[in-house]
Structure formats: C-alpha cells, structure tokens
Amino acid sequence: MRYICANCGYTYDPDQGDPMNDIPPGTAFADLPENWVCPLCYATMDSFDPLD
Amino acid sequence: MKPSISSLYQAIEIGQEIPPLLIGERSNPNGSKKFRECLLADDFDGCLRIGLDQEAKGAQVLDICAAYVGRDELADLTHLVKLHAESLKIPIMIDSTNSDCIEACLKIYPGRCIINSINLEDGGKTLDRVCRLAKKYGAAVVALTINEQGMAMTADEKVDTARQIYDLAVGKHGLRPQDILFDPLTFTIGAGDENLFDAAIQTLDGIRRIKEELPGVYTLLGLSNISFGLPPAARKILNSVFMHDAIEQGLDAAIIDAGKILPLAQVNEEDRVFCRDLIYNRGQDEEVSPLMRFIAHFSERVDGDDEEASDDQRPEEALHQKIVRGDKDGIEDILSVLLDRYPPLEIVNLILVPAMRHVGELFGKGELLLPFVLQSAEAMKKSVAWLEPHMEKLDQEEGIKILLATVQGDVHDIGKNLVDILLSNNGYKVFNIGIKVPAETIIAKARELNVDMIGLSGLLVKSAIVMQESLPQYREAGLDVPILLGGAALTSDFVATSCVPNYDAPVVYCSDAFAGLKALKDFEAGQLTATVAAPKNGKPCMKPGVKDVNIDRSQPVPEPPFYGLRHVIDIDPAKLFPYVNEQALFRGRWGYRRTSSSSAEEYAELTRSKVAPLYESLKARALEEGLLQPKAAYGYFRCYSEGDTVFVEAGEDIMAFDFPRQQSPPHLCIADYYKTREEGGDVAAFFVVTIGDRIAEETKRLFEADAYHDYLMLHGFSVEVTDALAEYWHEEMRRELGINRDKPDDMTGYVIQGYQGSRYGFGYPACPDLDAHGMLFKLLEPEKIGITLTETMEMVPEVSTSAIIAHHPQAKYFAV
Q1: Which has fewest Cβ within 10 Å: B165, B189, B455, B771?
Q2: How far is A30 from chain B (nearest CA, A)?
C-alpha cells in the first residue's frame, strides 16, 4: 500500500522504496525504520495517510 | 387510597406494584423533532398523535412541554392540555417552569396531574409560588435537587437539597410527602468526563438515601440522560440496566421513551457486566477505562427499530450533539430552553465543556478531523456568547488562566490561534497577546494577569532558539508557572535537553493544539510534568537527501535575459491555481486526512463532496474579491563559489552568501552547485514573492470574528497559494534561463522536483538561517512590492517566500 505525506504530497511507494533515505525497493511502509522521515519535507511517519 | 394521579378517565398509582411509573418524554419540542415541527406548524392534532402513540407504547403518564422560543407558551400549553385531557386516557405531567402557565393548566385539567418541576435555584421564590398552586389544586410536584449553589452532584448534596425542598414544601406549604417526586438528577457517564465518572453511583445513592431519610416521598429520574453521547443501540441497553438498578435503590418513576426500554431479562449477562462496570465505575485504573470497554463492546450493535434515533432527545442531549456535530443552527433555541432549567454556568460546565472534551477525544482517536473540531468550537463559542449576558460577571480569578504569545521576531500565529480556540472553548481563560512578543512583555503580562501557565509559539528555527535562550530570563524574573512550547521547528528532544533545564517549573513540548489541551488537563489534575527526551528507536530522525557526492563541474551556465533585479506586479492570480499542491492543502493545511477508520473510497467521497467544492469556492472568492495580489521581486546575478560561500556581484558590491555544509556524508552545501571563479563563474538567481496582505487581513478578520473553520481554511489556502506562486515563478525563471525542457506533467512532478535544478528557501532545511534576508533584500529591494523584514529577518506579510535558485541538474533538496 502506498502512503502520502499530508504535509507535502510526497508518495511513498513500496515498489520504489526511498533512495533519498537508502530504503530499498520492496520495503512496506510498516517496515520502515521508526526514525524514517519524508525525504522531501522531513515530516515524521505520523504525517502519512494511507493512499490505496 | 394509595397516592395516585388521574385523568378524566382513570387514576393511576404513583407507586406502581412493578415500578417504575413510566412517564412519556416525547411530547416536548426540545426533545422531539416531530413534536417541534407539529407545534411550529400549529398542528396540535399532530402533537396529540405523538401523545397517543406514547400511550399505546406503554406510557402511564404523559409529560407535556410547550416551551419553545418564539412561541406563546401559555397559549400553546393550555391548548395542548385541553386537547390531551379529552383524548388521552392517561394523566399528564405539566412540564413548565412558568408559574402562570402552570396555574392556567391546573385550572383546566380535569384530574390530578404532576407539575414538572420545582427547585431551589432562585432561593425559593418560584418554589413558593408553585407549591401554593400545588396545594390549591391538589397536584403532585417533581422537585429537582438544584439549589443556589447549582446542581447537586454528590449523594450528600442531593439529599441535603432534597431535605431543604422537603422542609419548605411540607413544612411551610403543607404538601404531603407523598405529593413530592424527588429527581436527584442524572448526568451522563457516556461522555468520558472524569468529573462524572461516579455520577451514576451518586445518583443511585441519592435515590436510596432520599427514600430512607425522607419517608413517604417518591423518586423520579430523567433516565436517558445517563447515556448521552453514546450510540442509540448501546444507550437502550445501558438505560435499561441503569433503570433496573435504580429501581432496586427505590426509584418510583422514570421520564423516558416507554417504547425504548428493555426488560432486564432481555439484556444478556455479558452486556450487563459492561453496563455495570460503567455505571459503578469499576476498573477505572485499568489500562482501558470502563467507558472505552463499554464502547468497544457495543461498537457493532445496531438498534433495528430505532426509527427516530436522533430525534428522540432531551434538550441537554440535543445541545451535546449540536456541539459534537459542530452545528450552530438553532442552538439558541435549545439554550433558551435549558436556561429555564439550569443556571447558565452549569450549562457551560455540565453540558458544553464535556461535549467539547468529547470532541477532543474523538479527534484523538482519529474519528474526527480538525475542520470539524473547529466547527464544534464555533458552536461552543456561539453558545457561550449567547449565555454570557445571562451570567453574572465571571470571576476572573476562577478557573485556569493561560497566556499565549508568538515569540519575538516571529509573525506566525496559526498554531497559537488554534491553541487559543481549543483552550478557550474548553473552559479555560486564554490571554492571547499576539505575535512578535518580546520575553520582557510576556513576563510582565504573566505577572499582571496572574496566569497559571504560559504558552509560547513560533514556527521558525530561530523561534526555537528564542524560546531556549529566553527561558533563563523567565527563571530570573521569578516566574514559576509551567511553560508550554509549540512550533514546527521544535522536537520533544530539543525541548527536553535544551529547554527544560533552563527553567524551574515544567517546560512541556506540545506537538499540536490538542497536546496543549492535554497539558492543561494534566495541570488541572496536578500531573503536569516536564517533557523528557524520548528519541525514536533510540536514534535521531533520518536525514534524507541526495546521495551524489561528485557534482559535475562541466555543466554549462545558462544565459539569463538580464542581470540585476526586476519587479513584477501584474501576475494573474488565476495562473497560480494549477501549481497549488492540493494534497498538501487538503490533508496538511486543512486537516482533511484519511482517518484510520475510513476507506480509500470514503476518503475520495469526502474529497469529492466536501473538500474539493470548498477549494473551488475559495478560488472563486479569492478572484472575485481580489484577495490575491501576487507580486515578485527577482533577479539574476553573476557569481562564483568559494568553499561554502557564494559571492554574488551586484553592481559595485560583492555580497557573500555563506551556506552551511552537512556535518555527515555526503557533506553537501548549496555553494557546491555554483562554479568557482577558476571554473569561469556562474549565475545565481533569487526571488522574493508575495500574494499580498489583503488575504492576510481577511484571514485575521475571520479569526477575530470567531469563524474558526473558515479561518483555518483561508489560512491554509493562502499558505499553499504562496507556495504555488513560488513554484510558478521558479518555472518562469527556468523558462527565462532556457532550462525548462523537462516540464513536469502534474503536481506530483513538481513535488519531487522533476525539473532542472532546485530552489532553496531561506529558513528551510538547506539554508536555515534567515539572516541572509538582509543581503537578499539589498539585492532585490522587495520593499517596493510591499514586503518588509522583522527584526529577526522574517518577511511580512506572512504569505511571502524567498529562494535562491540553482540551475545545476544535480541540485535537489537536502538538509544540513
């Protein structure tokens, strides 16, 4: 499931991962490290809404 | 003969062999929508049908109320009483606090009825009049345990008040004990108000002791109050169990919807346990409160035959629901009815404030979104404003007082104002002393107003430093009240390690306005403590960013159309809307987020039916009323980099823009994206843009007019349109530089910077220091388009933004 940052609109797509934070493709949102933040606006994970 | 009441046709004993005496509650314009509609349409036959229907469903007495704003109660009530006296077999209860109405009805009623009600709120004047009438006409009376101090909350108070009334009614006016039905008051245990956790216990005790200590009297309850705020199916069961237990304590009569009460035998054992845990407040210290356990247990229950679920309301509940739903329409009507029954302050403290707390809980559970919370706050504000003229001057020394300010140098006030809205509408006294407030002023005001707490706010990184550095000043000034800190640049770690040690009383980090509300509740409970460091997973937050270390030095330098500065004041505002980040606006700025309980489809429906139309109407309004006045000051300048500095040539002057470098790999710095003198130099582009101060003024006006919801909407809109202007103008400048080949297809493309180069906002993560604004303003002279700087280098109006633009394709966002 994709998640969207409520603060800036960035979408976390598990298929892509997040290269800006060294997160490999195939990482589910739930499996992101707790200190992960939005790669664009640095909002914490509680700023993300499920998208699908 | 046993004490009875009677109609023209029959007598009925007050003390039923199988109690309670069931008194129908729906012939009341404030409790039943259907009844209200009939009454307002002068459809008295329709009103009568509602009475007959209750009789058919088992009511043994019918309560009739006609008090409604704008209606002539005397005419309506006498008309209704006459009509019911002829057609209804059961006797009636005259529900009025107006002694003239009561007497007029007693005169025409051909039987023995009950008067609802008397109390000691005014010290006994009305009670004296009504007791004389009861004596004269031989009526029974309902007596509420309310005295000049207010509604009796504890069993002791209930019994004491009942005894006072008893002494007057029996001792002074010669009524018999059996003529009185004491109502020791029922308060909801369904709203999570901790003051009411034991309210059911107190009421049950009150019934038992009134019966023991005042022999011969009867007791009565407005029973459904017990379950205000809970879903209909759960209410029916809780009401039934509570009624059963109240009867065991000696309850004789209940005002209730006779059709909506179950015999206890129909409530299964398990349901009874959850009901009784709630009623008797069992296991309050467990992790999940009895109320939460109750709600969870009954969450799936649907009441099949509840065709008039939301209609079947008493005014207390109607008001509660109005607040929870944020529905202001007609709220004055409900208030005016309640004002006949309760002192205004009790309406505030026992109905309005608990309703707002319930709203806060719903938000906390993710069941209510911020815009709806603000609508509730508006309904609350309207209610309190309506009640205020009826209240004696509020004692300023009463209740918890908090001072709120945005710290020196910072003009951002949405966060502070949301805190103000929430706190002031949850019963706290708020002194909101504005923006850019120096510590000296805050200290002086805090002393003068003798506040219990101070709340400091600020969006900027700089403001976090201001808070940290001014705390010793608060300590030296001898202040000892807790200080709450809120703002985008703060973290709990920063507050715990850098702020808490600088002050003696608790310093508390509040991540949002609701955290502020929680802090006040903790303070009230004597449990407020300073924030302690709790880094996520023991590690600080990640620092995302580009991982490129090798920045291509051979990148060609684009040719700008001019060198120097230009001002543009005729930007068409409609051109900005395609650049608005709607996701950030809807979810982030407005708080229309997808809650844990809603599906993607439900969220799409919310967006389609509510949020998008709101956005469209704001756009139209902004254009129509000229609220947007986009302007830009921008320019291109020859430059070269040297280490962490970009030297910018402006005519004769050379300005040195120092940029910070990342402490950890890949050790980026904005200067890296510009060529050195040896490499042939580069071009630096800058802009300062604003959408003008008209929208800021209108936003301020909305806040001051208590239009909280619209305030948040317009503020969010202005913030995102400002960003859209920055996005639009950045694109214009890429076009002028001839580097606009990769134009993004949609907003997502802009979000991820799917274009050549980047822009770095001053005050943002790649260059957090706002002091560069000093040089930037010399370069671009944005004062000429109406933008000025505060003493801490922040731009005014707030709806302005600045940036340095790097054309280098590898330039993207990063944080230092």
Answers
A1: B771
A2: 14
